[in-house]
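Schema walkthrough. Field components (list of strings):
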Amino acid sequence: MMTVSRRETRALRSSDDVVRVRQAVRQWAMAQGFSLVDQTKMVTAASELARNTVDYGGGGNVLLEALNEGSRRGLKLTFSDQGPGIADIELALRDGYTSGSGLGLGLGGARRLTNEFAIDSTPGGGTRVTITRWQCGDRR
Amino acid sequence: MERIPILQMGPFLLVSIQVDMHDQLAMTLQDDLTEQIVKARAKGVVIDISSLEVVDSFIGRILGNMAAMARVLDAETVVVGMQPAVAITLVELGLSLPGIRTALNIEKGMALLRHKLDAGGHRC
Amino acid sequence: MMSTLGKTRFPDIVNRCQPQLLADWVQNQLSAASFNNGLMRESELREQSRQFLHALGEAVEHGDLTDIEESHWDETREFLAAVSRSRALQGFTPNQTAMFVFSLKQPLFQLLRQELEKQPEALIDEILSITRLLDQLGLHTTEIYQKNREEIIYQQQQELMELSTPVVQLWQNILALPLIGTLDSARTQVVMETLLQKIVDTNAAIAIIDITGVPTVDTLVAQHLLKTVAAARLMGADCIISGIRPQIALTIVHLGVDLTDVITKATLADAFAIALQRTGASVAAAERA
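Field assembly_structure (string):
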């Protein structure tokens, strides 16, 4: 049985908010017992997606959820915006693809750094990206 | 405005990033460093990131840009002190920072630059 | 009181005829071909059977026979879990362990047939509900058995992982990581983190990863090695991979893995010599006095 032990929404409007979300994710990952490497991977993935939300989604928010399933603990982040959306998700996930000024590793990188990754977007209808990472990276 | 300090040490510049940078701050650092290299006629730059707990693709790109601009201005760049967790994450992210020299700490970074300078060339 | 519980005669039979049931059941188990005499003593079997019948008798007194997850079955389930664990240790197979419960059906049905001789329909109902119950309990022993096995395997994996990643300092500035055994992604993560942390701790400029003891290298393992090398390089240290056996070299080439950016040496000794040279040390034969 999976339960959510803690839940919080944070706004993402500016590049300062990206820093604040990074720090919040670090604290939550630490509280969930993540190893230093697992914390860093989750914070980095969060940083990529938070920046996307601010830069390309015109701002939005992130929902943080602390997950417990049996003895294993995880962290789930949902980034939502009401921006222009992504027309070709497959293309956007490919490394090196960028519509802006980044290296084009944001979405694909975030997917590689997490255990579960889901994206939901329609042109003109905003974007929602959900990532989950479990403690130790193992899926037992 | 908040700024990352750039210190001069002989022919070299030392940048020690101690804070979790927001994007604008990183962009400012990039501009400041370029200006400083010209002003000080620096032959090398050591960027210490041992306090950075996160390097994402944006910061990675800024580091790459700074090294590339420095090279154009005839200065070699060494990034030092990357934490193991950050290195593992960057590799997983697909970012290997090509064209950037690295060293374990400031001392070794400085030694590397000095070695290059003594050898006459600064490209390898 | 028992007869007021409703249609089923099961609680009545289990409790009233317990001595006879126990005797028949133990006899059955002892004579069954699947019972392995060498693994446990007859007295132990008799005691386990007695305790199980007792727990079963208590549980059925409380009514519902359909769902063993309910609380009045706690004691029975726990008892069976203990039986399952001890039998796993004694070397019984999961089938033999489940048979402990299933073998109760035969003596139980015989008793029922005598009791309900005149009521064939009631007999069928009883047999159905008892079968359902005993099947659940039998499967429960199998599940516990399986879980125990998994736990043991998991623990052994963890222990192996800790044992198998020794990072040793060969010289000032030079580390070596002799890898032995198969590399999977979980183990490689531990290897990678241990090595990189040790590089920071010792200020090592060069790390030698020796894979003489790694039996096979597939694409995934090769990629993990490359990732470790790349991460070390980001931190400012170089890696040398040594001990690549001929057949592994062949596989690497066939897989199309690009090792051109990585220094590779045939033996740990060669790698060490190169590492010494790079760190500015040299080796010379000392003159004997």
